[in-house]
Amino acid sequence: MSAALVIRGLRKEYRAGVPVLRDVSLEVGGTGMTAIIGPSGTGKSTLIRCINRLVDPTAGEILFGGTDLARLKGRALREARRRIGMVFQEYNLVERLSVIENLLCGRLGYVPVWRAWLRRFPPQDVARAFDLLDAVGLGDFATRRADALSGGQRQRVGIARAIMQDPELVLADEPTSSLDPKTSVEIMELLAQLARERGIPVIVNIHNVELAKRFAERIVGMSQGAIVFDGPPAELRESHLLAIYGGQGWIDA
Amino acid sequence: MSELARLRTWQRFTLAQRVGRGLTYVLAAVAVVWSLRTIEVIPEFLYDAPEQTADLFRRMWPIDWSFWHEMVAEALVETFHTATLGTIIALVLSVPVALLAARNVTPSPTLNLVAKFILVSSRSVNSLIWALLFVAVFGPGALAGTLAIAFRSIGFVGKLLAEAIEEAQRGPLEALTAAGAPRASILLKGYWPQVEPSFWSVALFRWDINIRESAVLGLVGAGGIGVALDTGLNNLYWDQVGLCLLVIFLVVIATEIATSAIRSRII
Q1: B259, B193 Cβ separation under 8 angstroms
Q2: Closest Cα partner for A43 from A66, A18, A67, A65?
Q3: A165–B194 CB contact, under 8 Å
Q4: Cβ(A225)–Cβ(A22) below 8 Å
Q5: Which residues, in sequence order, are bridge partners of residue A68?
Q6: Would you give the DSSP letter of residue A108?
Q7: Which CATH superfamily is domain B64-266 in?
Q8: From CA A214, how far away is CA A87, in angstroms rounded?
Q9: Going by DSSP bridges, is the β-strand pair A33-37/A218-223 parallel, antiparallel, or unpaired?
Q10: Are A44 and A205 in contact (CB under 8 A)?
Q11: N or C: which end of chain A has fewer CB within 10 A?
């Protein structure tokens, strides 16, 4: 298994001297789903956002396809970003655009500005957007405005938009935290299925340990800005959960 | 007694706050008295004001309808054109200034300050003063009026537009950034759809205001129906003044109805 992403000594301090990430090192393989679990405020989101540089790391390297993402700027950074898809907790669709245009927004890193402006997206992009919309089960919603959709439908659009980028890696930041339990399972199934079919590695931040164990091949447990567990779901024991989340009562219940 | 002392008490304001509020009331009263004395009301004029007003209206009636063809019709069209063209110029010019003023689009305090300065200067000068300046530069006529309307509106439209841009939700912008979109594409597909409703509503509102403002610009020679009004006033032809006022009143009502109808449709 060759590593698609190698993180070494990643450190992030929003305020000097108060690290949110304490020298995190992590290797992610070329396929499969990796779930990062841990309590709120432990740096999961910061870690994932450092990878595509929505957050600038304080120190460390993030090697992706041989280049260090932590050092990129301007055009090179944009070109690296378009190879990494991202799915958000709050979907982050452009609400007043139609569903199909939201999908095409995934191509903005490739499409010249004037084409985006005049909505003259390349025909193969448009065709792919329709195919993907069918694949996520929203074929009939292409011309609906994004704000007319339910949470689960919006997240499907969010996933389709990420896939539109033709990514070599997908990051998902709490993709199910705003959804009901049934929809959460469907969204995780969809993510896992796309990852499997297209052979794209997926890194997903998730609160729900059961969902993580059910869909991920690998669990990374974080606590206070450091990795405290790393292994397959079957090896995750109560003692590990105790180390990750602390407390006792919630496990017994 | 001891029973009462143990009860917990609650008061909305502390002693210092109560004293402060009391002082504010006193100051407000002083300010009102002071300003009343400054404006020097002349009782004789105040007492016969109702009579004078009634007299004015009597002189306006019957309205001189022939003045419509003579001057008002053409001036009215000019007023419309002045307001509309001025608004369009202002919209075009205010967009770049608003982008510079919005802190989320332009993360440079210096540029923000420069843009804010432009917006404040535009707003702090009244349309009539702008018109006086442009009449001095370009001579009397609708060109001076149009530019006056445009320059006064840049500040208004730019400020509200900048605020709308700053209120854009970060989520979608973050998503487009993560997709590797260049800045121009983020502006077009991330910011613009979020700002669009405010943009059109501000544009309509300003057009509505500009119709009213351009109606009086003629008083300083900047074209439009104000010129007709000014002519009537100078000649003491109150029946012509009556026509001008009636027409302005109707036009304002009509634009009010039109803008609220359009607004309810686009938002």
Answers
A1: no
A2: A18
A3: no
A4: yes
A5: A63
A6: T
A7: MetI-like (1.10.3720.10)
A8: 19
A9: parallel
A10: yes
A11: C
Torsion of CA B31, B35, B36, B40, to 10 degrees: 160
Where does chain A show beta strands of DSSP type E? 3-15, 18-29, 33-37, 59-64, 67-68, 84-87, 169-173, 202-205, 218-223, 226-231
Question: Is A92 an 8 Å CB contact of chain B?
Answer: yes
Q: For chain B, give every domain's residue range.
A: 2-47, 64-266
d(CA A42, CA A13): 13
CA dist B97 and B114 (Å) reads: 9
pLDDT string in tens for chain A (253-residue length): 467 899 999 999 999 988 999 999 999 988 889 999 998 888 899 999 999 999 999 999 999 988 999 999 999 999 999 999 999 999 999 999 999 999 999 999 999 999 999 999 999 999 999 999 999 999 999 999 999 999 999 999 999 999 999 999 999 999 998 899 999 999 999 999 988 888 899 999 998 899 999 999 999 999 988 999 999 999 988 888 888 888 766 665 4
* Amino acid identity at B77: V
Per-residue tokens: B231:
């002519």
Q: Which amino acid would we find at residue B258?
A: A
Q: What is the mean pLDDT of chain B?
A: 90
Q: What are phi and psi of A22, to 5 degrees?
A: -110, 90
Q: What ipTM was estimated for this complex?
A: 0.91
Query: Distance (Å, rounded) from C-alpha B226 to C-alpha A48?
Result: 63
Residue A206 and residue A37: Cα distance in Å, rounded?
Answer: 6
Provide the pLDDT for residue A2: 66
Can you read off the two tokens belonging to residue B8? 């917990």
Mean pLDDT of all residues in B120-134? 91
A122 — contact with chain B (CB < 8 Å)?
no
- The residue of A88, A91, A105 whose CB has the most chain B CBs within 10 angstroms, and thus the best one to mutate to test that interface, is A105
> What are the residues facing A222 on neighbouring strands?
A227
Where on the phi/psi map is residue A225: left (φ > 0), alpha (ψ -120 to 50), or beta?
left
Say if CB A47 and CB A10 are below 8 A apart. yes
How far apart CA A125 and CA A123 sit, in angstroms, is 5
Question: From the CA atom positions of chain A, what is the Rg in Å?
Answer: 18
Compute the Cα dihedral for B196, B202, B207, B210 and give only its sign: negative
Could you give the 3-state DSSP secondary structure of residue A236? coil
Interface mutation target, options B167, B169, B173, B177, chain A, most CBs of A under 10 Å:
B177
